[in-house]
Amino acid sequence: MREPLLRIIDLGRRVGAAWIWRGVSFDVAAGERLALAGPTGSGKTLLLRAIAGLDPVDEGRVELEGREAEGGEAPAFRARVAYLHQRPALWRGTVAENLEAPFSLKANAGKRFDLDRAAALLERLGRKAPFLEARASNLSGGEAQLVALVRALLVEPGILLLDEPTASLDRASASWAEALLTEWVEAAPGRASIWTSHDPDQLARVAGRRIDLEGWKP
Question: Which of 68, 82, 136, 159 sits in a 20 to 30 Å window from 148, CA-based?
């Protein structure tokens, strides 16, 4: 039997004495698009951040390709697992400079920034070439989300953890982003995505399987 791409094993997180979720366990196969559902306050963002190694857990572990994940600070893990916050942080400078910046990090050693591919991805999202020279400080929340999405795709992770990735986009841009992310998962082996969204119709469109965090509420 083929090893899952990602395995979540009995994860638990608490704040003080109260458990937010406990015993969270599921596998993510290569090529899978998974929806992570639950009401506001159920801890969806905390779970994505825990999977990415950005937040601690009180119980359990994460395995990536059959090996226990070393956490968000390990370059090999960070190169494979990318977390997209719904309010992404951008560096000072232009859009192009923001897209190129991750290639200076140790996690992306050996990877090369491709400006033409960046332009092509932005065009898929409704932004023409001049957008590359826009100042990051002048972008709207939706435009910042598009830049963060393209930035993640350019470094070629294996798993995208998508936390409300289209929350600030208009309907057309959200539709383009959904199509692009679906194609990305299907375009090469060893890829998968986990989505959260406040919109259940979106989760039905972008994911083939749904996990509800309420099932792990103590």
Answer: 68
- Beta carbons of 88 and 144 less than 8 angstroms apart: yes
Q: Distance between CA atoms of 169 and 157, rounded to whole angstroms?
A: 23
**Cα–Cα distances in angstroms (integers) from residue 70 to residues 36, 54, 55, 61, in the given order:** 23, 11, 13, 10
Q: For the chain, what are the domain ranges? A: 6-216
Q: Which SS3 state, helix, strand or coil, does residue 195 take?
A: strand
Q: What average pLDDT does the segment 36-56 reach? A: 93
Mean pLDDT across 165-191: 96
For residues 192 and 185, give the distance between their C-alpha atoms in angstroms, rounded to a whole number.
Answer: 6
| DSSP one-letter code for 41 | T
Residue holding tokens 């951040």? 49
Q: pLDDT class for 77, splitting at 50, 70, 90? A: confident
Domain 6-216: top CATH class: alpha beta
Beta-ladder partners of 152: none
